[in-house]
């Protein structure tokens, strides 16, 4: 995702006020995310057909509401006769976990780097930021392609390839936050009171930057899912037979008019989930931004 | 000021050097291009000869130094696949990527402005939400899917626009839109928050009290204030568009640098991989540098 | 104000850029232009010695071959520079009589000097064509007794010389201008080639297109019907089809899956029947075949477990035929008199397969790595690999799909670093000399890196073919090779693929031919 530039200023306290304008709780995004998370969690209990079970004779069966469709495969079957509904449900586990794991890894590492750089400043800051800059300027897709070609595409490689570049964004943003925070009185007071680096970081810096982190994390989960889809298109995504929404769309791209359901349903799934994460992230951003709070 | 810029430049060069090593190692880790270049009946002797002919049998350090040494003069070696100088290939293809990115930027701005202004002015209403959804939609759909759907329906069935290749203004529209939609959300948010910041300020409140027309308030004051960060980030986004266009270039058969990178990686073409990655990194680095220099951006970040 | 000027500048810049685009030129599509959209150009090279296979599509328009071919792959005296050729009784001297009055695109006359120069250059140090090896081993000298006569002298008696230098194989037989290359050097020539063919090179934009323009009258095709011939590289199929619908392109490579769609809208489809055979094989180990595939019964079982008819009907949309002989290049069967009998067809016989596995001691199955990648001309590659893995699952074989791309597989194959794994290729079908050339690579242990068969008997048979001069004996040897490949189950043949090419509705008649990597576009463009 392109740089996230929105003007982040920090609230005096970390307690977000409810957004007085705009929508209250974002029902739609939360609902969608909640639904997909739930489905992903209970997937094994839903009694769906095996997402890997092939049947060439049944390939490209249309969804139930079409003439040739049947309730046996409510959303139709794919190029190897596998049930689409089952693959989308199981795919939610893969795609969501890819997004979440990547972002958690990237944000943990990036936040750590950003906090360290912002807190210590000086030479440490300079060196860390140079590394961050260099990392941030490396194109994610190229790195993922190179990895895929070198060690072969896999779930792990997708996560690693994206996380290895993504952390830089967190580092930058966190550092910016920390720098602003460090100017504030209460940090100086804590120092005077004899608090050590660890205490200041954990007690004061982290809680006050958590909001920003949360916004970024939410926005980036969607980004990771989208990047995985692009990687699948290029042959570097999560490989078959694992059902991942991105590779499902990519596999169906040659039958986009004839067997439209093969691409459409996973596409809708990605659209809903990513849209939800993005809208949620926007709402979080609005909530944490004091400038808008006052209006 | 000069010392500041010089220091930043030096630091960027160091970063570049590190990246060059990383790129060199990565390229060579992808595999052996000889398996693709040499025919199946090649004997061990043929492999050795080819390795010697292409300079792939020298020690890695020597290869790296020669790569860097020539890269400084702009010579990136010869493509192992196409057997043509890499700098020639880049010269041929980079402008195509730049042009497409520029067009996409234009489309993006053309979408972001009305959406951002509307969202700011009508904050909290349904229009605000609609504008947000439309822009965020561009980041919620896989690019290749949008591209393929556009090619199939707008180009193939309706035949309103060309399907691929570079051929005149109209051929930029579909790929430019696909590429540009992805960054609309970021620009729109910038514009919206920038305008809101102004619309909320004392200065504007004063102007309103003084009876200045609302329209003037919006266009003259709020918009102008919001523009600087938008323009700056447009520059950064532009660089990102150049480097992430590979999917769009593939679907629309656009001979750009993204596609060159993909071909290079697929055929384990070291010189091409090294050159393209270095070029894109330099591209992005330059913009990072610029953004860093602009104090307003530094502050806003 | 500063901000205003900055704003204005940005807007002007954007407008200017947009305006720049508007001045671009369009693809005019008068009837005099022929445009062909393909999914891949492989190495995109313009110089014959650097060429492999896919480059033949356009190189055969720019250059002439020493020995021409008919569309069905028979040597022809009309299609090449050599109007006739003969061999000495000891089969060590091949004399080619050259056509007179052939000129290169720069006006130079084509003489025997050029032929000698070209052949040596095409098999020289720089060459990566693919079939230069045997020529290098065999050719002792090339004599030029007269401007219209070339004699190739070989170290041993052989029949292969005219065929290896013909259009039916690769690019070794393409004739390039000696004087011109010697004056400008290889690098310049590789970027701006000059040949003697019906079309002249105009420009290449890598990753995009290659444009050729017609000369005047050419002995191969008369007055060309199309003034310009453009080959466009369009990797995405949806885009190729959209280009066809829009009339921007006249010929497109089509996948089997989408034939119905395109046919429905009235676009003629030309098929190259059995254009390639999709065949799987085992990666050998350092010392050859490794268990469990070392056991003939296991190999047979794996073959019996595939329902080829279902694969052909479903995955390949009916545009495929079950294949029976591993590496069986059916276009060569007629040439060598090989008759594929019905009992050679593998039935889909799961019970018998299970029994064979049990006999071999693998009743509970084993682990099998199956590489899964796409290939040019085989978009169904991954699907097929998954399907095969699915079939083998029923034998208790736990397949692991290895998702790397073809270059990575090829490395594992050549390095023998994944013994026992299964890979595949859609091998272009070809005439008997091409079949021999392929088998010499893939079924002959002496070509160690690319061997997939590792069978001493077949090795013996193949080593005799090159030096054999009795055509009957050659045919017998080839027949035996095919028979043994099948009887020993030395691979897993899957299907023969028919390749569809869709054309615009008003295109002239076109015989796509059955020559490897050659669609005979000169037929389309022919004014004869």
How would you describe this structure in keywords?
heterotrimer, A: 295 residues, mainly alpha, MetI-like fold, 10 helices, disordered C terminus, C: alpha+beta, nine-stranded mixed β-sheet, four-stranded antiparallel β-sheet, 18 helices
Walk me through the structure.
Chain A contains 10 helices and no strands. Chain A has 295 residues and is mostly helical. Chain A has one domain (75-288): Orthogonal Bundle (MetI-like fold), CATH 1.10.3720. The two termini of chain A are 29 Å apart. Chain B is an all-alpha fold. In chain B, helix 7 crosses helix 8 (170-199) and helix 10 packs antiparallel against helix 13. Chain C has 528 residues and is of the alpha+beta class. In chain C, the strands form 4 sheets. In chain C, strands 1, 8, 9, 10, 11, 12, 13, 16 and 17 form a 9-stranded mixed beta sheet that branches. In chain C, strands 4-5-7-6 form a 4-stranded antiparallel beta sheet. In chain C, helix 13 (381-393) links the parallel strand 14 (367-371) and strand 15 (398-402). Chain C is globular and about 70 Å long.
The percentage of residues in β strands of chain B lies in under 5%
Give the % helix of chain B: over 70%
Structural class by sheet pairing and helices of chain C: alpha+beta
* Rg of chain C (CA only): 25 Å
Structural class category of chain B? mainly alpha
Termini distance of chain C?
Answer: 72 Å
Largest interface: B-C, 64 and 63 residues
Number of helices of chain C: 18
- Largest beta-sheet characterization of chain B: none
- What characteristic shape of chain B results from the CA principal axes? elongated
The protein's oligomeric status is heterotrimer
- Low-confidence runs of chain B (pLDDT<50, min 5 residues)? 295-301
Which value, in Å, is the CA radius of gyration of chain B? 24 Å
Overall pLDDT metric of chain C: 89
Shape of chain C: globular
Strand content of chain C: 15-25%
The total beta strand count of chain C reads 17
Largest sheet of chain C: 9 strands, mixed
Summarize the helix and strand pattern of chain B as letters: HHHHHHHHHHHHHH
Give a summary of the structure in a few sentences.
The complex is a heterotrimer of chains A (295), B (301) and C (528). Chain A has 295 residues and is an all-alpha fold.
List the SSEs and their pairings.
The complex is a heterotrimer of chains A (about 300), B (about 300) and C (about 525).
Chain A: H1 27-42, H2 84-120, H3 122-136, H4 140-151, H5 155-182, H6 185-192, H7 197-234, H8 245-251, H9 261-288, H10 290-293
Helix pairs in contact in A: 1-2, 1-9, 2-3, 2-5, 2-7, 3-5, 4-5, 5-7, 7-8, 7-9, 8-9
Chain B: H1 2-29, H2 34-37, H3 44-53, H4 60-72, H5 86-121, H6 126-137, H7 143-157, H8 170-199, H9 202-210, H10 214-244, H11 246-251, H12 257-266, H13 270-293, H14 295-300
Chain C: H1 2-22, E1 33-38, H2 56-62, E2 68-69, E3 75-76, E4 82-87, E5 93-98, H3 112-122, H4 132-138, E6 139-146, E7 149-154, H5 160-164, H6 178-191, E8 199-205, E9 209-214, E10 228-233, H7 237-245, E11 251-253, H8 259-264, E12 269-282, H9 296-304, H10 308-314, E13 320-322, H11 331-336, H12 350-359, E14 367-371, H13 381-393, E15 398-402, H14 406-415, E16 422-428, H15 432-442, H16 456-467, H17 471-487, E17 492-503, H18 521-525
Parallel strand pairs in C: 1-10, 1-11, 14-15
Antiparallel strand pairs in C: 2-3, 4-5, 5-7, 6-7, 8-9, 9-10, 11-17, 12-16, 12-17, 13-17
Helix pairs in contact in C: 9-12, 16-17
């Amino acid at each position: 995702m392109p740089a996230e530039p929105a003007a982040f200023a920090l609230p005096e306290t970390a307690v977000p006020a409810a957004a007085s304008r705009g929508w209250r709780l974002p029902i739609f995004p939360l609902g969608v995310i909640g639904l997909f998370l739930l489905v992903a969690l209970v997937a094994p209990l839903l009694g769906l057909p095996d997402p890997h079970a092939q049947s060439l004779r049944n390939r490209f069966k249309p969804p139930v509401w079409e003439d040739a469709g049947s309730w046996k495969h409510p959303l139709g079957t794919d190029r190897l006769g596998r049930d689409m509904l089952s693959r989308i449900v199981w795919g939610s586990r893969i795609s969501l976990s890819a997004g979440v794991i990547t972002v958690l890894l990237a944000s943990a590492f990036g936040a750590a780097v950003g906090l360290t750089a912002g807190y210590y400043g000086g030479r440490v800051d300079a060196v860390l930021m140079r590394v961050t800059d260099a990392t941030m300027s490396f194109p994610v897709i190229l790195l993922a392609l190179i990895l895929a070609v070198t060690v072969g595409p896999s779930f792990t490689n997708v996560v690693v390839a994206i996380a290895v570049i993504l952390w830089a964004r967190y580092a930058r943003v966190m550092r910016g936050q920390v720098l602003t925070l460090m100017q504030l009185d209460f940090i100086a007071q804590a120092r005077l009171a004899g608090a050590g680096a660890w205490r200041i970081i954990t007690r004061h810096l982290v809680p006050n930057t958590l909001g920003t982190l949360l916004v970024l994390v939410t926005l980036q989960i969607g980004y990771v899912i989208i990047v995985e889809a692009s990687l699948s298109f290029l042959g570097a995504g999560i490989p078959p037979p694992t059902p991942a929404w991105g590779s499902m769309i990519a596999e169906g791209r040659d039958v986009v008019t004839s067997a439209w359901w093969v691409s459409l349903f996973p596409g809708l799934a990605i659209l809903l989930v990513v849209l939800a994460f993005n809208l949620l992230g926007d709402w979080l951003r609005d909530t944490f931004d004091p400038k808008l709070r006052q209006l | 000021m000069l010392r500041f810029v010089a220091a930043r430049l030096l630091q960027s060069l160091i970063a570049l050097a590190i990246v060059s090593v990383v790129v060199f190692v990565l390229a060579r880790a992808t595999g052996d291009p000889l398996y693709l270049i040499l025919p199946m009946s090649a004997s061990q002797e043929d492999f050795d000869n080819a390795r010697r002919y292409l300079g792939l049998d020298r020690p890695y350090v020597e290869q790296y130094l020669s790569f860097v040494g020539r890269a400084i003069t702009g010579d990136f070696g010869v493509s192992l696949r196409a057997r043509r100088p890499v700098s020639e290939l880049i010269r041929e293809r980079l402008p195509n990527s730049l042009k497409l990115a520029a067009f996409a930027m234009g489309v993006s701005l053309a979408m972001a402005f009305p959406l951002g202004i509307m969202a700011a002015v009508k904050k909290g209403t349904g229009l605000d939400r609609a504008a947000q959804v439309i822009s965020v939609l561009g980041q919620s759909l896989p690019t290749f899917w949008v591209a393929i759907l556009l090619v199939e329906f707008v180009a193939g069935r309706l035949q309103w626009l060309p399907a691929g290749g570079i051929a005149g203004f109209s051929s930029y529209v579909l790929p430019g839109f696909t590429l540009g939609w992805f960054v609309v959300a970021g620009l729109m948010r910038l514009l919206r928050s920038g305008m809101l910041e102004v619309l909320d300020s004392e200065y504007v409140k004063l102007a309103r009290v003084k009876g200045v027309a609302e329209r003037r308030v919006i266009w003259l004051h709020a918009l102008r204030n919001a523009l600087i960060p938008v323009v700056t980030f447009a520059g950064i986004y532009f660089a990102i568009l150049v480097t992430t266009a590979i999917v769009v270039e593939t679907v629309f058969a656009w001979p750009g640098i993204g596609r060159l990178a993909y071909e290079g990686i697929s055929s384990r073409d070291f010189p091409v991989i090294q050159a393209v990655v270095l070029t894109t990194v330099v591209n992005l680095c330059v913009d990072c540098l610029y953004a860093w220099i602009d104090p307003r951006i530094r502050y806003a970040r | 104000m500063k901000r205003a000027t900055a704003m204005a500048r940005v807007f002007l810049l954007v407008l200017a850029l947009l305006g720049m685009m508007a001045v671009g030129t369009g693809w005019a599509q008068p009837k005099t232009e022929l445009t062909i959209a393909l999914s891949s150009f492989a190495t995109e090279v313009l110089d014959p010695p650097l060429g492999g296979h896919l480059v033949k599509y356009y190189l055969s328009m720019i250059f002439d071959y020493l020995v021409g071919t008919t569309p069905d792959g028979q040597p022809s005296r009309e299609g090449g520079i050599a109007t006739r050729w003969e061999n000495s009784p000891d089969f060590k001297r091949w004399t080619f009589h050259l056509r007179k009055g052939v000129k290169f695109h720069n006006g130079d006359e084509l003489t025997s000097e050029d032929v000698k120069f070209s052949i040596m250059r095409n098999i020289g140090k720089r060459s990566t064509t693919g079939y230069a090896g045997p020529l290098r081993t065999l050719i002792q000298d090339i004599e030029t007794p007269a401007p219209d006569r070339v004699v190739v002298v070989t170290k041993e008696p052989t029949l292969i010389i005219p065929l290896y230098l013909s259009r039916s194989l690769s690019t070794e037989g393409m004739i390039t201008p000696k004087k011109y290359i010697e004056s400008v050097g290889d690098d310049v020539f590789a970027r701006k080639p000059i040949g003697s063919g019906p079309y002249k090179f105009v420009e290449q934009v890598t990753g995009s297109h290659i444009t050729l323009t017609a000369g005047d009258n050419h002995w191969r095709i008369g007055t060309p019907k199309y003034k310009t011939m453009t080959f466009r590289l369009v990797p995405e199929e949806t885009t190729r089809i959209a280009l066809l619908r829009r009339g921007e392109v006249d010929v497109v490579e089509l996948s089997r899956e989408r034939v119905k769609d395109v046919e429905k809208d009235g676009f003629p489809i030309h098929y190259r029947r059995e254009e390639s055979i999709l065949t799987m094989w085992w990666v050998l180990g350092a010392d050859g075949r490794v268990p469990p595939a070392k056991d003939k019964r296991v190999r047979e079982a794996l073959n019996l477990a595939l329902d080829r008819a279902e694969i052909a009907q479903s995955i390949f949309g009916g545009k495929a035929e079950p294949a029976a002989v591993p590496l069986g290049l059916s276009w060569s069967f007629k040439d060598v008199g090989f008759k594929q009998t019905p009992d050679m067809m593998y039935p889909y016989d799961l019970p018998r397969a299970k029994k064979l596995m049990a006999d071999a001691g693998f009743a509970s199955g084993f682990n099998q790595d199956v590489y899964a990648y796409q290939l040019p001309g085989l978009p169904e590659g991954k699907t097929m690999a998954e399907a095969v893995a699915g079939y083998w699952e029923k034998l208790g074989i736990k397949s692991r799909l290895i998702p790397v791309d073809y270059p990575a597989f090829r490395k594992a194959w050549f390095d023998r670093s994944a013994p026992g794994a299964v890979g595949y290729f859609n091998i272009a079908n070809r005439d008997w000399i091409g079949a021999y050339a392929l088998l010499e690579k893939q079924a002959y242990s002496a070509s160690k890196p690319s061997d997939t068969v590792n069978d001493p008997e077949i090795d013996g048979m193949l080593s005799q073919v090159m030096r054999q001069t009795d055509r009957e004996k050659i045919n017998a040897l080839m027949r035996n090779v095919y028979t043994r490949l099948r009887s020993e189950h030395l691979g897993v043949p899957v299907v023969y693929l028919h390749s569809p090419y869709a054309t615009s509705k008003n295109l002239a008649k076109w015989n796509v031919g059955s020559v490897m990597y050659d669609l005979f576009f000169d037929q389309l463009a022919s004014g004869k």
